[in-house]
Amino acid sequence: NSYHGMSLGSLAVSGSASTRQLGGVARHDVVRVPYENYPNQTFDSASYIDHVLGDPGSGIEKPAAIILEPIQAEGGMNTASAPW
């Protein structure tokens, strides 16, 4: 459900596995987190991010950047809640 452009860097963060493969460069240092309440469940992605970044045993290093997508439109219209 995400579209960030067609550069190698933007392809690396796409939510679509087939789109990521278009770049031909595997990016194993990108961590993806499900969108808020995806798929139609109660999933607090913001709390999950806080948890894994605050837990040294999570295996996830502190990121150089976090890309948030408050409105997803590529795979259907998904809008994040105000608290998210």
Strand order of the largest sheet: 1-2
Spatial extent as radius of gyration: 14 Å
Question: Which percent bin holds the helix content?
Answer: 25-40%
The biggest sheet, with number of strands, parallel, antiparallel or mixed sense and barrel status, is: 2 strands, antiparallel
How many domain modules? Answer: 1
Structure description:
- The chain is mainly alpha-helical and 84 residues long.
- It has one domain (8-79).
- It is built from 3 helices and 2 strands.
- A two-stranded antiparallel ribbon has the order 1-2.
- The longest helix is centred in the middle third of the chain and has 10 residues, at 45-54.
- The chain is globular and about 30 Å long.
- The model has no long low-confidence stretch (mean pLDDT 79).
Overview features:
single chain; 84 residues; mainly alpha; two-stranded antiparallel ribbon; 2 strands
Short summary of the structure?
The chain is mainly α and 84 residues long. Helix content is 25%, strand content 5%.
Give me the secondary-structure topology.
Layout: H1 8-12, H2 17-22, H3 45-54, E1 71-72, E2 78-79
Antiparallel strand pairs: 1-2
